[in-house]
Amino acid sequence: MALHRITVTINGEVELVDVPSHMTLLQMLREKLALTGTKNGCAAGECGACTVMLNGEPVNSCLVLAAECDGAEITTVEGLKKNGQLDPVQQGIMEAGGVQCGFCTPGVLISARALLDRNPTPSEADIKAALVGNLCRCTGYFRIIEGVKRAAKIQEAAKEEMTYGIG
Amino acid sequence: MALAEQTKIPNPIGESMPRIDVFEKVTGAAVYTDDIQFGPQLLYARVKRSPHPHALIKKIDVSKARALPGVKVVVTGDDFPGHIGLYLKDKHIFARDRVRFVGEPVAAVAAISEEIAEKALDLIEVEYEPLEPVLDPVYGASPEAPLVHPDLGEYEVVNFIFPKPGTNISNHFKIRKGDVEAAWPKCAAIVERTYHIPHVQHVPIEPHVAVAKVDETGEVTLWASSQSPFAQRNLIAKTLGISQSDMRVIAPYVGGGFGCKAGVTMEAIPVAIAQKAKGRPVKLRLTREEEFYTNFVRQGLVIKLKVGCDKDGNLLAMENTMYWDGGASTEYGVNITRAGGYSSTGPFDIPNVKTDSMCVYTNHPIGGAYRGFGMSELHAGIGQVMDELAEKIGMDKVEFLKRNVVQGGDILGTGMKMHPTGIKECIDKVAEALDWGKKAEPSAPNKLRGKGIAVMWKAPAMPPNAGSSAVIELNEDGTLTVNIGGQEIGQGTFTAMAQLAAGVMGVPMDWVRIAGPIDTQYSPYEWQTVASRLTWSMGNAVVAAARDARQQVLKVVAEAWDEDPDDLDIVNGTVVSYKSEREMSLKDIGIYGINKEGDTGWIGGPIVGRGNFMPTYVTGLDPETGQGNRAVVHYTTGAQGFEIEIDKDTGRLEIIRAASAFDVGKAINPDLVRAQIEGGFVQGMSSAIFEEMKLVGGEMKNPSFVDYRIATAADIPPEHKTFIVEVPQDDGPFGARGIGEHPMVPSIAALGNAIYDAISVRLDPPFTSEKIYLAMLDAGLVE
Amino acid sequence: MHNPRPGLPEFDYVRPASLSEASRFLAEHQGEARPFMGGTDTFVRMRDGFWKEKYIVDVKRLDGMGDITFDPSTGLTIGAAVNMNRVIDSPEVQEHYPLLAEAAKTVASFQLRSRATIVGNICNASPAGDTIGACIVMGGVLKVHGLDGEREVPLTGFFVGPGKTVLKPGDIVTAIRFPVLPQGHAGRYIKLGRNALSDLAIVGVTAFAYPDDTPSGYRFKLALASVAPVPLVPEKAEEILTGKPITDETIAEAAQAAMDACNPIDDVRGSARYRKYMVRNLTRRAVTDVLNRLQ
């Protein structure tokens, strides 16, 4: 069983980790780095609870080998908050009441963040399509979808504020 | 009672306050059981499981597994002779002598890694002698069926469950009210139908996980994703022959429960192993596949119904025979069949009732609590036969429902008198939202359109004396710490309890902290987080504790100010006197008391309010007639409706719009009530359209998300209107009753009725595209 | 009872420096080494215990594997490691091969498509593969690197059975190449799953056509998913649509021929009976949609 020493940037921090070949990215995050915000719901790429951003793209971290991630950049739910400010997707889903048990939430937030990165003004159909890989058993999705819409507005407003400046 | 004491409802009770746990949950900081770090001492458990639905265990050889380096503990049923169970002690932690379902634990291993534990499982040799399995509850109830539990007569059982030794029937609940035989000839229309409701799974996104540790003195600590830390403490301690106080259960946030983390499912396994692990913590985490194979399930039901009404559409009689597929153990399921029995009429006023609700052992997975506790299955049948009867007598379906639903003062099937309920208003709201009575044209030529509605009721199903308690402490900064034993499983109970405490005490919401995680060593007792009972039962305890703390504060201040406590109030965290207009912040009272004038001593001390609640008024029912004074505490009622289209080319069902209305007595937090209604609606819709455990020869053939499909974001309808009706409950805090389970109860029937409206065919759930298409084909609707 | 393990079984992760090295390694460790791209299928099957390879060979960073290129005179080449979302987003694919994007969009979820690849979909040879039909009807050809260097392998005859292809030990598919498509072409992929999106296909119908000098005025290509051990081309249905003037009756006849051509099984996703009817109805719908798009 080979060990691989890899360098990965996780939420902006450079980490040096020794990982066995068969360790998944999910296991590395949770077990090696104690970044337990990312959840394990099925280990088969179906539920989306383990979704993280790998080089800017959302992936099921249960289906990525840690060893493959040498040199990669990873964002987990713990990395969404920046400078003490919640990300618009966190803010939007929070305000819309899109959280119940919270177990799917980290994956949902990453998928939503990725959606707004590629499409800042998504339609309801876009949002639904972007979230089909994130199973939620509590909310019935209505408030998650509403939260992403709200996040898009929050992001838009923040951008305008940046563009036109205040003070 | 509670309501009478409070003339006006204080803020923030009744306000849509944000969840108090949401910040933790959106930042990834919320801790769930699997997130707790145990360090290098941790051992990983894996379980050897039965491949047979029914077999005798001839021999188990664990010697090779034990010899594998890295393996620390191997256990089998020989090590744990005790029985376990909530209502009927018919289960062992590991199978002994006989296995009764595919996936049943036979042995377990704990090793320094999951990989080694997995290898060790392959080295355990088990020799079986297969027996004929019982795979159908109707057959199982017959005298021909082999016995799944030959020792049924020897099991310990609570006094309201009636097993029949020498059969597979572990509970038989009966209602004999009026005379159904005499009523049938008086009926102008009669409908008879049998429905088969399949097994389904809860599918929390967080699989079951538990970690146990036994220290040098034998004290046990269990960390578990749990709806029932106290029940688990009680049941596991009893089984292992230890005292309840020598066992501690710590229950962090739960990543979805829906009933499957109630009672004891897999939590006893790591405890059993840990007893032999020399102080090392032992973790067992179910894979998603094990979650499907071995978790408690919503048991299957075969329901045979006969209902009749007079020419004006008044219900005259119902005969309801239910065969519940209880599975290999019915330790919890027996009470579901009891609940199905005493609620067997649905929310209808019927003078003549004959009910037989039978819990039948089979060699299927174990039936347990699932959101609705038997009601979804029961209502799937009742809601559709009522629809059919309305049509047969030629009456508008909404009119028929309104004519026959229960009202305050009605004498129910069990002899209990119904309390006031807003079910008619619920029906009206749903009917209006769907433009009931107006037939819309299909959106395309290859579509068929239909509408359906169904009503429901559900009572908290529990022992008659299930209790709650709460302790409220004041802190130096004036804030309250609310100690409770009920669990936050996503429903928002921590937020609702904080609102009740804040409102009653008179402090701002952000002055309230809920003490968590729930820990049986520190948290006050709570029976279980089930039955939609927390807002009501634990809410009563929290209100009582807050009143107690408030009275203590007022008494101390009154003494210090030499005033009458009745002239004082607590407003926004400050004690005020309406007489002297003096003020004092809670910060100056909560812990250190008040310095008497002239520094002549002190009054008061740390304020600790206590409250408890236990319903004292639920009575037993006659085992032969099901009659008694009060079968349950109360019923939450509601209605749900769908407008749908069916694609004639594929059978695909599309929901155009839907509406749900429930009478919650009083919404402590309307937004959270709506969130429960929405989530339950989608879970109900999902179960009705997609979900079925495909059990073949006792084995589940779709044990993964690949083939056990649940609703995704793309499957929800564009419109779902929710309505909150509030007819107050006399024994609830500020009139509140539960709402957690109810929203999914009417879904199968309401959708089934909408499908019937579109294609004139009645189907068993799930209403898959395939089932609908082939039904249309066989009915000649499509070629 | 099939009970997958909690995580992946132990294996060695290998990353060869070149295609030749990779081919050599795979051939030397025949039966115990496997190349992988996105891993969305590989890791699931390894966790399930169906695949027990000792070596998992990461070839996705090798030469050209990550490229997607279009040349107006020779066509489109999609490297084996290009994920489906990149294919869907590619302006060249959207303009010249929209059917491929349409089919790829129906695969699983967005996060799965961040890893899943078209070539992986083909190499897995699942009868349910959503993009395989599009690749077949548009004349896709695989570029394969083997022990003897590069060669091209057409998709016709590539699939031998569920999960089985004509690839040999040491073979690595490096890309799929599509010819320039005839003027005026149009395609449609209709997938019937249990859920609105994200499910595997109970039935998938790919239809593709372009104007041609035939009795119908078109050349039609069809492919069916999930109705036979391998992706199925209902040739008779294609002939009917090409050989007769297009009327509702012709379409119905072709749909019936497609239904008759397939030989599905009963499984947990659907019965053979339902699948056959769905092949007929969805072929009719897909062909009608293609005709609408042709006009």
Structure description:
The complex is a heterotrimer of chains A (167), B (783) and C (295). Chain A is of the alpha+beta class and 167 residues long. Chain A folds into two domains: 3-79, Beta-grasp domain (Ubiquitin-like (UB roll)), CATH 3.10.20.30; 88-164, [2Fe-2S]-binding domain (DNA polymerase, domain 1, Orthogonal Bundle), CATH 1.10.150. Chain A has helices at residues 25-32, 88-96, 105-118, 124-131, 142-164, and strands spanning 3-10, 13-20, 51-54, 57-60, 73-75. Chain A has a five-stranded mixed sheet, sandwiched between helices. In chain A, a hairpin with a 2-residue loop joins strand 3 and strand 4 (57-60). Chain B folds into three domains: 2-30 and 466-613, Aldehyde oxidase/xanthine dehydrogenase, molybdopterin binding domain (Aldehyde Oxidoreductase, domain 4, 2-Layer Sandwich), CATH 3.30.365.10; 33-131 and 208-285, Aldehyde oxidase/xanthine dehydrogenase, a/b hammerhead (Aldehyde Oxidoreductase, domain 3); 373-462 and 636-778, Aldehyde oxidase/xanthine dehydrogenase, molybdopterin binding domain (Aldehyde Oxidoreductase, domain 4). Helices cover 24% and strands 25% of the residues of chain B. In chain B, strand 24 and strand 25 form a beta hairpin. In chain B, helix 11 (375-393) packs parallel to helix 17 and helix 14 (493-505) packs parallel to helix 15. Chain B is globular, with a radius of gyration of 27 Å. In chain C, the strands form four sheets. Chain C has a five-stranded antiparallel sheet. Chain C has a three-stranded parallel sheet with strand order 1-3-2, with helices on one face. The longest helix of chain C is centred in the C-terminal third of the chain and has 23 residues, at 272-294. In chain C, 57% of the residues are buried. Classes of the chains: A alpha+beta (167), B alpha+beta (783), C alpha+beta (295). At the A-B interface, helix 2, helix 3, helix 4 and helix 5 of A face helix 2 and helix 16 of B.
In short:
The complex is a heterotrimer of chains A (167), B (783) and C (295). With 167 residues, chain A is of the alpha+beta class. Chain A has helices at residues 25-32, 88-96, 105-118, 124-131, 142-164, and strands spanning 3-10, 13-20, 51-54, 57-60, 73-75.
List its salient traits.
heterotrimer; A: 167 residues; alpha+beta; Ubiquitin-like (UB roll); DNA polymerase, domain 1; 2 domains; five-stranded mixed beta sheet; 37% helix; 16% strand; B: 783 residues; Aldehyde Oxidoreductase, domain 4; Aldehyde Oxidoreductase, domain 3; 3 domains; eight-stranded mixed beta sheet; 33 strands
